[in-house]
Amino acid sequence: MSSSSKPFIPLSIAVLTVSDTRTTETDTSGGWLVETLSAAGHHLAEKLILKDDKYKVRAAVANWIASDDVQVVLITGGTGFSARDVTPEAVSVLFDKSIEGFGEVFRSVSFDEIGSSTIQSRALAGMANGTVVFCLPGSTGACKTGWDLIKQQIDSTHKPCNFVAQLKSIGV
Protein backbone atom coordinates (compact mmCIF):
# COMPACT_ATOMS: atom_id res chain seq x y z
CA MET A 1 0.00 0.00 0.00
CA SER A 2 1.44 3.40 -0.94
CA SER A 3 1.67 6.20 1.60
CA SER A 4 -1.15 8.05 -0.19
CA SER A 5 -3.51 5.06 0.14
CA LYS A 6 -6.19 5.11 2.77
CA PRO A 7 -6.02 2.42 5.47
CA PHE A 8 -8.54 -0.41 5.57
CA ILE A 9 -11.29 0.32 8.12
CA PRO A 10 -13.08 -2.73 9.49
CA LEU A 11 -16.83 -2.16 9.66
CA SER A 12 -19.46 -3.55 11.99
CA ILE A 13 -21.96 -5.54 9.93
CA ALA A 14 -25.31 -7.06 10.88
CA VAL A 15 -26.67 -10.03 8.91
CA LEU A 16 -30.37 -10.83 8.65
CA THR A 17 -31.82 -13.92 7.01
CA VAL A 18 -35.50 -13.53 6.11
CA SER A 19 -37.09 -16.96 5.76
CA ASP A 20 -40.02 -19.01 6.96
CA THR A 21 -38.00 -22.21 6.70
CA ARG A 22 -34.33 -21.54 7.54
CA THR A 23 -32.82 -22.35 10.91
CA THR A 24 -29.35 -21.69 12.27
CA GLU A 25 -28.34 -25.12 10.97
CA THR A 26 -29.82 -24.68 7.47
CA ASP A 27 -29.06 -21.00 6.89
CA THR A 28 -26.30 -21.49 4.34
CA SER A 29 -26.68 -17.99 2.86
CA GLY A 30 -26.50 -16.11 6.15
CA GLY A 31 -23.70 -18.38 7.34
CA TRP A 32 -21.76 -17.75 4.13
CA LEU A 33 -22.16 -13.97 4.53
CA VAL A 34 -20.89 -14.13 8.13
CA GLU A 35 -17.83 -16.17 7.14
CA THR A 36 -17.11 -13.95 4.15
CA LEU A 37 -17.43 -10.60 5.91
CA SER A 38 -15.16 -11.86 8.68
CA ALA A 39 -12.59 -13.13 6.16
CA ALA A 40 -12.68 -9.67 4.55
CA GLY A 41 -11.63 -8.11 7.88
CA HIS A 42 -15.01 -6.81 9.06
CA HIS A 43 -16.79 -7.54 12.35
CA LEU A 44 -20.12 -9.27 12.83
CA ALA A 45 -22.37 -7.03 14.94
CA GLU A 46 -25.28 -9.46 15.09
CA LYS A 47 -26.93 -12.22 13.07
CA LEU A 48 -30.65 -12.90 13.07
CA ILE A 49 -33.08 -15.18 11.30
CA LEU A 50 -36.62 -13.81 11.04
CA LYS A 51 -39.72 -15.15 9.38
CA ASP A 52 -41.15 -13.24 6.41
CA ASP A 53 -42.99 -10.68 8.52
CA LYS A 54 -42.79 -7.14 7.19
CA TYR A 55 -43.03 -5.47 10.60
CA LYS A 56 -40.55 -7.72 12.40
CA VAL A 57 -38.05 -7.31 9.57
CA ARG A 58 -38.58 -3.54 9.55
CA ALA A 59 -38.16 -3.34 13.35
CA ALA A 60 -34.90 -5.31 13.34
CA VAL A 61 -33.41 -3.24 10.52
CA ALA A 62 -34.63 0.02 12.09
CA ASN A 63 -32.88 -0.94 15.35
CA TRP A 64 -29.62 -1.54 13.50
CA ILE A 65 -29.98 1.74 11.60
CA ALA A 66 -30.54 3.55 14.90
CA SER A 67 -27.59 1.82 16.59
CA ASP A 68 -24.24 3.56 16.78
CA ASP A 69 -22.61 0.13 16.51
CA VAL A 70 -23.76 -0.98 13.02
CA GLN A 71 -22.53 0.55 9.77
CA VAL A 72 -23.70 -2.10 7.29
CA VAL A 73 -26.75 -4.38 7.15
CA LEU A 74 -26.76 -7.41 4.85
CA ILE A 75 -30.16 -9.04 4.32
CA THR A 76 -30.66 -12.31 2.50
CA GLY A 77 -34.10 -13.53 1.50
CA GLY A 78 -37.57 -12.18 0.94
CA THR A 79 -36.78 -10.35 -2.30
CA GLY A 80 -38.75 -12.51 -4.73
CA PHE A 81 -42.36 -12.35 -5.88
CA SER A 82 -44.11 -14.88 -3.67
CA ALA A 83 -46.85 -13.60 -1.39
CA ARG A 84 -44.53 -14.01 1.61
CA ASP A 85 -41.60 -12.04 0.11
CA VAL A 86 -41.71 -8.71 1.96
CA THR A 87 -38.12 -7.54 2.39
CA PRO A 88 -38.29 -4.60 -0.10
CA GLU A 89 -41.57 -3.37 1.41
CA ALA A 90 -40.23 -3.76 4.95
CA VAL A 91 -36.92 -2.01 4.37
CA SER A 92 -37.22 0.54 1.56
CA VAL A 93 -39.39 2.90 3.64
CA LEU A 94 -36.45 3.26 6.05
CA PHE A 95 -34.04 4.58 3.40
CA ASP A 96 -32.96 8.20 3.35
CA LYS A 97 -31.56 7.52 -0.13
CA SER A 98 -31.96 4.53 -2.41
CA ILE A 99 -28.93 3.10 -4.17
CA GLU A 100 -30.60 2.30 -7.50
CA GLY A 101 -27.35 1.20 -9.10
CA PHE A 102 -27.02 -1.78 -6.78
CA GLY A 103 -30.18 -3.54 -7.94
CA GLU A 104 -29.51 -2.62 -11.54
CA VAL A 105 -25.97 -3.99 -11.54
CA PHE A 106 -26.97 -7.04 -9.47
CA ARG A 107 -29.60 -8.01 -12.04
CA SER A 108 -27.20 -7.35 -14.92
CA VAL A 109 -24.50 -9.59 -13.45
CA SER A 110 -27.09 -12.16 -12.38
CA PHE A 111 -28.45 -12.36 -15.94
CA ASP A 112 -25.20 -14.01 -17.00
CA GLU A 113 -25.70 -16.60 -14.24
CA ILE A 114 -29.44 -17.36 -14.30
CA GLY A 115 -30.77 -15.75 -17.46
CA SER A 116 -34.14 -14.06 -17.56
CA SER A 117 -35.08 -15.39 -14.11
CA THR A 118 -33.12 -12.41 -12.77
CA ILE A 119 -36.07 -10.14 -13.55
CA GLN A 120 -37.81 -11.71 -10.56
CA SER A 121 -35.11 -10.42 -8.22
CA ARG A 122 -36.03 -7.35 -6.23
CA ALA A 123 -32.51 -6.90 -4.82
CA LEU A 124 -32.09 -3.36 -3.55
CA ALA A 125 -29.94 -1.14 -1.35
CA GLY A 126 -30.11 2.19 0.41
CA MET A 127 -28.59 4.50 3.00
CA ALA A 128 -30.29 5.36 6.29
CA ASN A 129 -28.81 7.27 9.21
CA GLY A 130 -25.25 6.58 8.07
CA THR A 131 -25.94 2.87 7.58
CA VAL A 132 -25.82 1.14 4.21
CA VAL A 133 -28.38 -1.65 3.78
CA PHE A 134 -28.11 -4.32 1.06
CA CYS A 135 -31.02 -6.69 0.35
CA LEU A 136 -30.09 -9.87 -1.51
CA PRO A 137 -32.04 -12.89 -2.67
CA GLY A 138 -31.98 -15.91 -0.37
CA SER A 139 -29.81 -18.30 -2.36
CA THR A 140 -26.15 -18.67 -1.49
CA GLY A 141 -25.30 -18.14 -5.17
CA ALA A 142 -27.12 -14.81 -5.15
CA CYS A 143 -25.29 -13.81 -1.95
CA LYS A 144 -21.98 -14.57 -3.65
CA THR A 145 -22.99 -12.47 -6.67
CA GLY A 146 -24.07 -9.63 -4.40
CA TRP A 147 -20.95 -9.82 -2.24
CA ASP A 148 -18.79 -9.37 -5.33
CA LEU A 149 -20.47 -5.95 -5.72
CA ILE A 150 -20.73 -5.06 -2.03
CA LYS A 151 -17.21 -5.94 -0.87
CA GLN A 152 -15.53 -3.11 -2.76
CA GLN A 153 -18.14 -0.54 -1.76
CA ILE A 154 -17.59 -1.26 1.96
CA ASP A 155 -13.80 -1.30 1.60
CA SER A 156 -12.25 2.05 2.56
CA THR A 157 -9.30 1.40 0.22
CA HIS A 158 -11.44 0.93 -2.92
CA LYS A 159 -11.03 3.62 -5.57
CA PRO A 160 -12.35 5.76 -7.07
CA CYS A 161 -15.11 5.73 -4.44
CA ASN A 162 -16.79 3.64 -1.75
CA PHE A 163 -19.48 4.11 0.89
CA VAL A 164 -17.22 4.08 3.95
CA ALA A 165 -16.88 7.88 4.16
CA GLN A 166 -20.71 8.12 4.18
CA LEU A 167 -21.14 5.77 7.13
CA LYS A 168 -21.66 6.71 10.77
CA SER A 169 -18.59 6.99 12.92
CA ILE A 170 -16.99 3.75 13.92
CA GLY A 171 -14.61 5.20 16.44
CA VAL A 172 -11.60 5.21 14.12
From TrEMBL:
PROSITE patterns the record matches: MOCF_BIOSYNTHESIS_1
PANTHER family xref list: MOLYBDENUM COFACTOR BIOSYNTHESIS PROTEIN B (PTHR43232)
The name this protein goes by in its record: Molybdenum cofactor biosynthesis protein B
Cellular-component GO terms for this entry: cytosol
Function: May be involved in the biosynthesis of molybdopterin.
Gene3D superfamilies attached to this UniProt entry: MoaB/Mog-like domain
Keywords: Molybdenum cofactor biosynthesis
Keyword DNA repair: no
Domain of life of the source: Bacteria
UniProt-listed Pfam families: MoCF_biosynth
Provenance organism: Neptunicella marina
Pathway info: Cofactor biosynthesis; molybdopterin biosynthesis
Stretches assigned to the MoaB/Mog domain: 14-157
NCBIfam families (UniProt xref): moaB_proteo (TIGR02667), molyb_syn (TIGR00177)
Family: Belongs to the MoaB/Mog family.
Biological process, per Gene Ontology: Mo-molybdopterin cofactor biosynthetic process
